[in-house]
Design goal:
Elements: H1 2-22, H2 59-62, H3 66-78, H4 80-101, E1 107-117, E2 123-138, H5 143-209, H6 215-250, H7 290-293, H8 295-316, E3 321-332, E4 344-353, H9 361-427, H10 433-467
Protein backbone atom coordinates (compact mmCIF):
# COMPACT_ATOMS: atom_id res chain seq x y z
CA UNK A 1 0.00 0.00 0.00
CA UNK A 2 2.86 2.29 0.78
CA UNK A 3 4.34 1.65 -2.64
CA UNK A 4 1.11 2.60 -4.43
CA UNK A 5 0.63 5.73 -2.33
CA UNK A 6 4.02 7.16 -3.29
CA UNK A 7 3.34 7.67 -7.02
CA UNK A 8 -0.11 9.11 -6.25
CA UNK A 9 1.40 11.58 -3.81
CA UNK A 10 4.05 12.60 -6.29
CA UNK A 11 1.37 13.04 -8.98
CA UNK A 12 -0.73 15.19 -6.67
CA UNK A 13 2.24 17.33 -5.73
CA UNK A 14 3.12 17.74 -9.42
CA UNK A 15 -0.42 18.90 -10.19
CA UNK A 16 -0.32 21.39 -7.32
CA UNK A 17 3.03 22.70 -8.50
CA UNK A 18 1.73 23.05 -12.05
CA UNK A 19 -1.33 24.90 -10.77
CA UNK A 20 0.86 27.25 -8.78
CA UNK A 21 3.07 27.93 -11.78
CA UNK A 22 0.15 28.33 -14.18
CA UNK A 23 -1.96 30.31 -11.76
CA UNK A 24 -5.57 31.25 -12.45
CA UNK A 25 -7.19 34.32 -13.90
CA UNK A 26 -10.08 36.49 -12.79
CA UNK A 27 -10.01 38.62 -15.96
CA UNK A 28 -13.53 38.94 -17.45
CA UNK A 29 -13.89 37.51 -20.95
CA UNK A 30 -13.36 40.30 -23.48
CA UNK A 31 -16.15 40.84 -25.98
CA UNK A 32 -15.94 43.60 -28.55
CA UNK A 33 -18.88 45.97 -28.00
CA UNK A 34 -21.39 46.15 -30.81
CA UNK A 35 -20.71 49.13 -33.08
CA UNK A 36 -23.33 51.79 -32.21
CA UNK A 37 -23.70 52.92 -35.84
CA UNK A 38 -25.76 52.01 -38.89
CA UNK A 39 -24.76 49.10 -41.11
CA UNK A 40 -24.18 51.42 -44.09
CA UNK A 41 -23.16 55.01 -44.69
CA UNK A 42 -25.81 57.51 -45.78
CA UNK A 43 -26.12 57.48 -49.56
CA UNK A 44 -26.03 60.91 -51.16
CA UNK A 45 -25.94 61.39 -54.89
CA UNK A 46 -22.83 59.95 -56.52
CA UNK A 47 -21.61 57.99 -53.48
CA UNK A 48 -24.55 55.58 -53.60
CA UNK A 49 -23.33 52.06 -54.20
CA UNK A 50 -20.00 52.53 -52.40
CA UNK A 51 -20.97 50.19 -49.56
CA UNK A 52 -19.05 47.07 -50.64
CA UNK A 53 -16.09 45.91 -48.60
CA UNK A 54 -12.91 47.56 -49.90
CA UNK A 55 -9.24 47.05 -49.00
CA UNK A 56 -7.23 49.81 -47.34
CA UNK A 57 -5.20 52.03 -49.67
CA UNK A 58 -1.54 52.65 -48.78
CA UNK A 59 -0.54 56.31 -48.68
CA UNK A 60 2.09 55.77 -51.37
CA UNK A 61 -0.74 54.68 -53.69
CA UNK A 62 -3.12 57.41 -52.53
CA UNK A 63 -0.68 60.28 -53.15
CA UNK A 64 0.03 60.57 -56.86
CA UNK A 65 2.35 63.60 -56.92
CA UNK A 66 6.04 62.69 -56.64
CA UNK A 67 6.99 65.90 -54.83
CA UNK A 68 4.24 65.44 -52.25
CA UNK A 69 5.29 61.82 -51.68
CA UNK A 70 8.85 62.96 -51.06
CA UNK A 71 7.61 65.65 -48.69
CA UNK A 72 5.54 63.11 -46.72
CA UNK A 73 8.57 60.82 -46.45
CA UNK A 74 10.58 63.71 -44.97
CA UNK A 75 7.79 64.41 -42.48
CA UNK A 76 7.64 60.76 -41.41
CA UNK A 77 11.37 60.87 -40.73
CA UNK A 78 11.53 64.25 -38.99
CA UNK A 79 8.16 65.19 -37.46
CA UNK A 80 8.57 65.61 -33.70
CA UNK A 81 5.03 64.60 -32.74
CA UNK A 82 5.48 61.31 -34.57
CA UNK A 83 8.86 60.88 -32.91
CA UNK A 84 7.22 61.31 -29.50
CA UNK A 85 4.59 58.71 -30.42
CA UNK A 86 7.37 56.30 -31.41
CA UNK A 87 9.26 56.90 -28.18
CA UNK A 88 6.04 56.34 -26.22
CA UNK A 89 6.01 52.82 -27.65
CA UNK A 90 9.47 52.20 -26.26
CA UNK A 91 8.45 53.55 -22.86
CA UNK A 92 5.30 51.42 -22.66
CA UNK A 93 7.24 48.37 -23.90
CA UNK A 94 9.64 48.83 -20.97
CA UNK A 95 6.66 48.98 -18.57
CA UNK A 96 5.37 45.73 -20.03
CA UNK A 97 8.77 44.09 -19.58
CA UNK A 98 8.76 45.20 -15.94
CA UNK A 99 5.38 43.57 -15.37
CA UNK A 100 6.51 40.40 -17.11
CA UNK A 101 9.65 40.29 -14.95
CA UNK A 102 7.47 40.46 -11.81
CA UNK A 103 6.35 36.88 -12.53
CA UNK A 104 9.88 35.53 -12.09
CA UNK A 105 12.03 35.48 -8.94
CA UNK A 106 14.82 38.02 -8.56
CA UNK A 107 18.12 36.65 -7.27
CA UNK A 108 20.91 38.76 -5.89
CA UNK A 109 24.14 38.56 -3.95
CA UNK A 110 23.58 39.62 -0.35
CA UNK A 111 25.98 40.27 2.51
CA UNK A 112 24.97 41.39 5.96
CA UNK A 113 26.37 41.88 9.42
CA UNK A 114 24.66 42.34 12.77
CA UNK A 115 26.12 43.18 16.19
CA UNK A 116 23.94 43.58 19.27
CA UNK A 117 24.07 43.06 23.06
CA UNK A 118 23.51 39.45 24.08
CA UNK A 119 21.96 40.21 27.50
CA UNK A 120 25.00 38.91 29.43
CA UNK A 121 27.10 42.00 29.11
CA UNK A 122 28.68 40.86 25.86
CA UNK A 123 28.15 41.51 22.16
CA UNK A 124 26.85 38.85 19.77
CA UNK A 125 27.78 39.07 16.10
CA UNK A 126 26.28 37.45 13.01
CA UNK A 127 27.68 37.70 9.51
CA UNK A 128 26.25 36.14 6.34
CA UNK A 129 26.85 36.16 2.60
CA UNK A 130 25.25 34.31 -0.30
CA UNK A 131 22.39 34.29 -2.79
CA UNK A 132 19.09 35.84 -1.73
CA UNK A 133 15.56 35.70 -3.14
CA UNK A 134 13.49 38.54 -1.76
CA UNK A 135 9.69 38.36 -1.47
CA UNK A 136 8.89 36.57 -4.74
CA UNK A 137 5.13 36.56 -5.12
CA UNK A 138 3.86 33.22 -6.38
CA UNK A 139 1.06 34.35 -8.65
CA UNK A 140 -1.43 31.61 -7.79
CA UNK A 141 -4.50 33.82 -8.30
CA UNK A 142 -3.23 35.68 -11.38
CA UNK A 143 -2.82 39.18 -9.95
CA UNK A 144 0.56 39.78 -11.56
CA UNK A 145 -0.52 38.00 -14.75
CA UNK A 146 -3.51 40.35 -14.97
CA UNK A 147 -1.26 43.37 -14.55
CA UNK A 148 1.02 41.95 -17.24
CA UNK A 149 -1.95 41.54 -19.61
CA UNK A 150 -2.97 45.13 -18.92
CA UNK A 151 0.56 46.34 -19.65
CA UNK A 152 0.64 44.29 -22.87
CA UNK A 153 -2.65 45.83 -24.02
CA UNK A 154 -1.32 49.31 -23.23
CA UNK A 155 1.79 48.52 -25.28
CA UNK A 156 -0.33 47.40 -28.23
CA UNK A 157 -2.47 50.54 -27.79
CA UNK A 158 0.67 52.70 -28.01
CA UNK A 159 1.56 50.99 -31.30
CA UNK A 160 -1.90 51.77 -32.64
CA UNK A 161 -1.54 55.36 -31.41
CA UNK A 162 1.64 55.66 -33.46
CA UNK A 163 -0.10 54.30 -36.56
CA UNK A 164 -2.93 56.78 -36.03
CA UNK A 165 -0.34 59.56 -35.71
CA UNK A 166 1.28 58.41 -38.97
CA UNK A 167 -2.03 58.50 -40.83
CA UNK A 168 -2.88 61.91 -39.37
CA UNK A 169 0.56 63.22 -40.35
CA UNK A 170 0.17 62.02 -43.95
CA UNK A 171 -3.22 63.72 -44.09
CA UNK A 172 -1.96 66.94 -42.45
CA UNK A 173 1.03 67.25 -44.78
CA UNK A 174 -1.15 66.55 -47.84
CA UNK A 175 -3.84 69.03 -46.76
CA UNK A 176 -1.35 71.78 -45.89
CA UNK A 177 0.59 71.27 -49.13
CA UNK A 178 -2.67 71.53 -51.09
CA UNK A 179 -3.51 74.70 -49.16
CA UNK A 180 -0.12 76.09 -50.17
CA UNK A 181 -0.87 75.31 -53.83
CA UNK A 182 -4.21 77.07 -53.47
CA UNK A 183 -2.50 80.09 -51.89
CA UNK A 184 -0.11 80.23 -54.85
CA UNK A 185 -3.04 80.07 -57.27
CA UNK A 186 -4.92 82.81 -55.42
CA UNK A 187 -1.76 84.91 -55.23
CA UNK A 188 -1.25 84.62 -59.01
CA UNK A 189 -4.93 85.36 -59.63
CA UNK A 190 -4.84 88.41 -57.36
CA UNK A 191 -1.65 89.62 -59.02
CA UNK A 192 -3.25 89.37 -62.47
CA UNK A 193 -6.40 91.12 -61.23
CA UNK A 194 -4.33 93.87 -59.62
CA UNK A 195 -2.44 94.44 -62.87
CA UNK A 196 -5.74 94.63 -64.78
CA UNK A 197 -7.24 97.09 -62.30
CA UNK A 198 -4.14 99.26 -62.31
CA UNK A 199 -4.38 99.45 -66.11
CA UNK A 200 -8.06 100.35 -65.82
CA UNK A 201 -7.22 103.01 -63.21
CA UNK A 202 -4.58 104.59 -65.48
CA UNK A 203 -7.01 104.63 -68.38
CA UNK A 204 -9.81 106.07 -66.27
CA UNK A 205 -7.54 108.76 -64.82
CA UNK A 206 -6.41 109.71 -68.32
CA UNK A 207 -10.03 109.96 -69.47
CA UNK A 208 -10.94 111.96 -66.36
CA UNK A 209 -8.09 114.41 -66.97
CA UNK A 210 -9.41 114.90 -70.49
CA UNK A 211 -13.00 115.38 -69.32
CA UNK A 212 -14.16 112.13 -70.97
CA UNK A 213 -15.41 110.47 -67.74
CA UNK A 214 -16.77 111.46 -64.36
CA UNK A 215 -15.16 111.57 -60.91
CA UNK A 216 -17.45 108.71 -59.89
CA UNK A 217 -15.84 106.38 -62.43
CA UNK A 218 -12.39 107.43 -61.19
CA UNK A 219 -13.26 106.78 -57.54
CA UNK A 220 -14.75 103.39 -58.42
CA UNK A 221 -11.56 102.42 -60.24
CA UNK A 222 -9.44 103.62 -57.30
CA UNK A 223 -11.59 101.61 -54.86
CA UNK A 224 -11.30 98.39 -56.84
CA UNK A 225 -7.54 98.82 -57.23
CA UNK A 226 -7.10 99.37 -53.48
CA UNK A 227 -9.25 96.28 -52.79
CA UNK A 228 -7.01 94.22 -55.07
CA UNK A 229 -3.90 95.55 -53.32
CA UNK A 230 -5.38 94.57 -49.92
CA UNK A 231 -6.29 91.13 -51.23
CA UNK A 232 -2.77 90.70 -52.63
CA UNK A 233 -1.23 91.50 -49.21
CA UNK A 234 -3.66 89.09 -47.56
CA UNK A 235 -2.74 86.28 -49.95
CA UNK A 236 0.97 86.89 -49.37
CA UNK A 237 0.38 86.56 -45.63
CA UNK A 238 -1.69 83.40 -46.05
CA UNK A 239 0.99 81.78 -48.20
CA UNK A 240 3.61 82.54 -45.55
CA UNK A 241 1.39 80.98 -42.88
CA UNK A 242 0.83 77.86 -45.01
CA UNK A 243 4.56 77.53 -45.59
CA UNK A 244 5.29 77.89 -41.87
CA UNK A 245 2.70 75.23 -41.02
CA UNK A 246 4.12 72.86 -43.62
CA UNK A 247 7.68 73.41 -42.37
CA UNK A 248 6.59 72.53 -38.83
CA UNK A 249 4.92 69.33 -40.03
CA UNK A 250 7.94 68.28 -42.08
CA UNK A 251 10.29 69.11 -39.22
CA UNK A 252 13.02 70.69 -41.35
CA UNK A 253 13.46 73.41 -44.00
CA UNK A 254 11.68 72.33 -47.19
CA UNK A 255 13.54 72.15 -50.52
CA UNK A 256 12.04 74.72 -52.88
CA UNK A 257 11.27 72.18 -55.62
CA UNK A 258 8.94 70.25 -53.30
CA UNK A 259 6.70 73.28 -52.84
CA UNK A 260 5.43 72.95 -56.41
CA UNK A 261 3.54 70.02 -57.99
CA UNK A 262 5.74 67.64 -59.96
CA UNK A 263 3.46 68.17 -62.98
CA UNK A 264 0.87 70.78 -64.03
CA UNK A 265 -2.59 70.03 -62.68
CA UNK A 266 -4.25 69.59 -66.07
CA UNK A 267 -1.32 68.29 -68.12
CA UNK A 268 -1.22 65.12 -70.18
CA UNK A 269 1.63 62.87 -71.12
CA UNK A 270 3.01 62.19 -74.57
CA UNK A 271 0.42 60.98 -77.04
CA UNK A 272 -2.39 62.54 -74.98
CA UNK A 273 -2.13 59.98 -72.14
CA UNK A 274 -3.30 61.44 -68.83
CA UNK A 275 -0.68 61.55 -66.10
CA UNK A 276 -1.28 60.16 -62.62
CA UNK A 277 -3.81 62.27 -60.68
CA UNK A 278 -2.68 64.29 -57.70
CA UNK A 279 -4.74 62.10 -55.33
CA UNK A 280 -6.33 58.72 -55.98
CA UNK A 281 -9.96 57.89 -55.30
CA UNK A 282 -10.56 56.07 -52.01
CA UNK A 283 -13.14 53.25 -51.81
CA UNK A 284 -15.35 53.73 -48.75
CA UNK A 285 -16.35 50.15 -47.98
CA UNK A 286 -18.61 49.27 -45.03
CA UNK A 287 -18.71 50.80 -41.55
CA UNK A 288 -17.56 47.46 -40.14
CA UNK A 289 -14.30 47.90 -42.07
CA UNK A 290 -13.46 50.82 -39.79
CA UNK A 291 -12.99 48.43 -36.87
CA UNK A 292 -10.01 46.92 -38.68
CA UNK A 293 -8.77 49.98 -40.59
CA UNK A 294 -8.85 52.80 -38.06
CA UNK A 295 -5.87 52.71 -35.72
CA UNK A 296 -7.62 54.92 -33.18
CA UNK A 297 -10.48 52.40 -32.91
CA UNK A 298 -8.01 49.55 -32.47
CA UNK A 299 -6.22 51.68 -29.86
CA UNK A 300 -9.50 52.20 -27.98
CA UNK A 301 -10.16 48.45 -28.06
CA UNK A 302 -6.71 47.68 -26.64
CA UNK A 303 -7.36 50.19 -23.87
CA UNK A 304 -10.63 48.37 -23.18
CA UNK A 305 -8.72 45.09 -22.95
CA UNK A 306 -6.30 46.71 -20.50
CA UNK A 307 -9.19 47.98 -18.38
CA UNK A 308 -10.65 44.45 -18.41
CA UNK A 309 -7.34 43.04 -17.19
CA UNK A 310 -7.25 45.56 -14.35
CA UNK A 311 -10.53 44.07 -13.12
CA UNK A 312 -8.80 40.68 -12.94
CA UNK A 313 -5.98 42.16 -10.85
CA UNK A 314 -8.48 43.88 -8.54
CA UNK A 315 -10.42 40.63 -8.05
CA UNK A 316 -7.26 38.68 -7.30
CA UNK A 317 -6.42 41.14 -4.49
CA UNK A 318 -9.25 39.59 -2.40
CA UNK A 319 -7.39 36.27 -2.24
CA UNK A 320 -4.24 35.31 -0.31
CA UNK A 321 -0.99 36.75 -1.57
CA UNK A 322 1.66 34.05 -1.38
CA UNK A 323 5.30 35.13 -1.31
CA UNK A 324 8.60 33.43 -0.77
CA UNK A 325 11.81 34.77 0.74
CA UNK A 326 14.88 32.52 0.69
CA UNK A 327 18.64 32.67 0.92
CA UNK A 328 21.52 30.23 0.59
CA UNK A 329 25.11 30.89 1.55
CA UNK A 330 27.39 31.03 4.52
CA UNK A 331 26.91 32.41 8.04
CA UNK A 332 29.21 32.80 11.01
CA UNK A 333 29.48 34.62 14.31
CA UNK A 334 32.93 35.79 13.29
CA UNK A 335 33.82 37.62 10.12
CA UNK A 336 36.98 35.54 9.72
CA UNK A 337 34.99 32.30 9.81
CA UNK A 338 32.47 33.34 7.18
CA UNK A 339 33.77 31.00 4.46
CA UNK A 340 35.08 28.14 6.60
CA UNK A 341 33.83 24.58 6.32
CA UNK A 342 30.56 23.94 8.08
CA UNK A 343 29.29 27.52 7.77
CA UNK A 344 27.05 26.86 4.76
CA UNK A 345 23.28 26.86 5.11
CA UNK A 346 19.98 28.20 3.81
CA UNK A 347 16.78 29.87 4.92
CA UNK A 348 13.32 29.45 3.44
CA UNK A 349 10.45 31.68 4.54
CA UNK A 350 7.14 31.28 2.67
CA UNK A 351 4.31 33.61 3.59
CA UNK A 352 0.60 33.75 2.79
CA UNK A 353 -1.31 36.93 3.56
CA UNK A 354 -5.11 36.90 3.37
CA UNK A 355 -6.71 40.35 3.63
CA UNK A 356 -9.34 40.45 6.41
CA UNK A 357 -9.78 44.14 7.16
CA UNK A 358 -8.50 46.83 4.78
CA UNK A 359 -11.13 49.54 5.38
CA UNK A 360 -12.74 48.75 2.00
CA UNK A 361 -9.58 49.37 -0.02
CA UNK A 362 -9.82 46.23 -2.19
CA UNK A 363 -13.55 46.68 -2.80
CA UNK A 364 -12.98 50.28 -3.83
CA UNK A 365 -10.15 49.19 -6.14
CA UNK A 366 -12.46 46.66 -7.77
CA UNK A 367 -15.21 49.24 -8.20
CA UNK A 368 -12.67 51.68 -9.69
CA UNK A 369 -11.50 48.99 -12.15
CA UNK A 370 -15.10 48.25 -13.19
CA UNK A 371 -15.86 51.92 -13.72
CA UNK A 372 -12.60 52.20 -15.69
CA UNK A 373 -13.82 49.38 -17.94
CA UNK A 374 -17.17 51.15 -18.44
CA UNK A 375 -15.30 54.33 -19.35
CA UNK A 376 -13.18 52.39 -21.84
CA UNK A 377 -16.35 50.93 -23.40
CA UNK A 378 -17.82 54.41 -23.79
CA UNK A 379 -14.56 55.69 -25.29
CA UNK A 380 -14.48 52.78 -27.73
CA UNK A 381 -18.08 53.42 -28.80
CA UNK A 382 -17.35 57.15 -29.16
CA UNK A 383 -14.32 56.35 -31.35
CA UNK A 384 -16.54 54.22 -33.62
CA UNK A 385 -19.24 56.90 -33.79
CA UNK A 386 -16.68 59.62 -34.52
CA UNK A 387 -15.16 57.53 -37.30
CA UNK A 388 -18.60 56.89 -38.81
CA UNK A 389 -19.44 60.60 -38.73
CA UNK A 390 -16.10 61.60 -40.31
CA UNK A 391 -16.56 59.12 -43.16
CA UNK A 392 -20.19 60.19 -43.68
CA UNK A 393 -19.13 63.85 -43.80
CA UNK A 394 -16.38 63.12 -46.30
CA UNK A 395 -18.75 61.08 -48.49
CA UNK A 396 -21.25 63.94 -48.43
CA UNK A 397 -18.49 66.26 -49.61
CA UNK A 398 -17.43 63.78 -52.28
CA UNK A 399 -20.99 63.62 -53.60
CA UNK A 400 -21.53 67.39 -53.78
CA UNK A 401 -18.20 69.17 -54.19
CA UNK A 402 -17.62 67.77 -57.67
CA UNK A 403 -20.96 69.11 -58.89
CA UNK A 404 -20.31 72.44 -57.15
CA UNK A 405 -16.91 72.71 -58.83
CA UNK A 406 -18.37 72.01 -62.28
CA UNK A 407 -21.05 74.65 -61.79
CA UNK A 408 -18.52 77.23 -60.64
CA UNK A 409 -16.29 76.48 -63.64
CA UNK A 410 -19.24 77.24 -65.92
CA UNK A 411 -19.93 80.41 -63.92
CA UNK A 412 -16.28 81.51 -64.15
CA UNK A 413 -16.30 81.00 -67.93
CA UNK A 414 -19.49 83.03 -68.22
CA UNK A 415 -18.11 85.83 -66.03
CA UNK A 416 -14.91 85.98 -68.05
CA UNK A 417 -16.95 86.36 -71.24
CA UNK A 418 -19.16 88.95 -69.54
CA UNK A 419 -16.11 91.00 -68.57
CA UNK A 420 -14.73 90.82 -72.11
CA UNK A 421 -18.02 91.98 -73.60
CA UNK A 422 -18.50 94.76 -71.02
CA UNK A 423 -15.01 96.08 -71.68
CA UNK A 424 -15.61 95.92 -75.45
CA UNK A 425 -18.93 97.77 -75.12
CA UNK A 426 -17.29 100.41 -72.94
CA UNK A 427 -14.48 101.02 -75.39
CA UNK A 428 -17.08 101.43 -78.14
CA UNK A 429 -19.08 103.87 -76.00
CA UNK A 430 -22.12 101.60 -75.73
CA UNK A 431 -21.91 100.82 -71.97
CA UNK A 432 -20.79 102.75 -68.92
CA UNK A 433 -17.58 102.12 -67.00
CA UNK A 434 -19.65 100.94 -64.05
CA UNK A 435 -20.65 97.88 -66.10
CA UNK A 436 -16.95 97.10 -66.64
CA UNK A 437 -16.10 97.50 -62.97
CA UNK A 438 -19.03 95.34 -61.88
CA UNK A 439 -18.08 92.58 -64.33
CA UNK A 440 -14.44 92.76 -63.21
CA UNK A 441 -15.39 92.52 -59.53
CA UNK A 442 -17.75 89.61 -60.18
CA UNK A 443 -15.12 87.74 -62.24
CA UNK A 444 -12.52 88.10 -59.49
CA UNK A 445 -14.90 86.79 -56.82
CA UNK A 446 -15.97 83.86 -59.00
CA UNK A 447 -12.38 82.86 -59.79
CA UNK A 448 -11.47 83.05 -56.09
CA UNK A 449 -14.44 80.83 -55.20
CA UNK A 450 -13.40 78.36 -57.92
CA UNK A 451 -9.91 78.01 -56.46
CA UNK A 452 -11.28 77.59 -52.95
CA UNK A 453 -13.82 74.96 -54.02
CA UNK A 454 -11.10 73.02 -55.85
CA UNK A 455 -9.05 73.09 -52.65
CA UNK A 456 -12.08 71.95 -50.63
CA UNK A 457 -12.60 69.02 -53.01
CA UNK A 458 -8.96 67.92 -52.78
CA UNK A 459 -8.86 68.31 -49.01
CA UNK A 460 -12.11 66.34 -48.80
CA UNK A 461 -10.32 63.46 -50.58
CA UNK A 462 -7.60 63.66 -47.94
CA UNK A 463 -10.23 63.78 -45.18
CA UNK A 464 -11.93 60.67 -46.58
CA UNK A 465 -8.61 58.85 -46.74
CA UNK A 466 -7.87 59.73 -43.12
CA UNK A 467 -11.43 58.96 -41.95
CA UNK A 468 -11.24 55.48 -43.48
CA UNK A 469 -8.05 54.79 -41.55
CA UNK A 470 -5.72 55.17 -44.50
CA UNK A 471 -3.20 52.46 -45.08
CA UNK A 472 0.45 51.93 -44.41
CA UNK A 473 3.30 50.87 -46.67
CA UNK A 474 6.54 50.03 -44.90
Amino acid sequence: MHESTGPKLRTALSLVAAAVLAGCSFIPTHERPAAPVADAYPSLGSNAGTQATAPALAWTSFVGDAHLRELIALALANNRDLRVATLNIEQVRAQYQIRRADQLPSLGLAASGNRQPDGNGGISSTYSAGLALSSWEIDFFGRIASLKEAALAQYLASEEAQRAAQTSLVAAVSSTWLSLQSSDDLLALTQRTLATREDSLRLTKLRFDNGATSALDLRQAESLTAAAQASFAQQQRQRALDLNALTLLVGQPIPAKLLEPSQPAASTGEGGTAMQPLLSDVPAGLPSDLLERRADIRQAEQQLIAANANIGAARAAFFPRISLTASAGTASSELSGLFKDGSWGFTLAPQALLPIFDAGRNRASLESARVGRDIAVAQYEKAVQTAFREVADALAGQATLGEQLRAQQVQATAEAERFRLAELRYRNGVASFLDVLDAQRSLFGTEQALVQTRLAQQQNQVALYRALGGGWSE
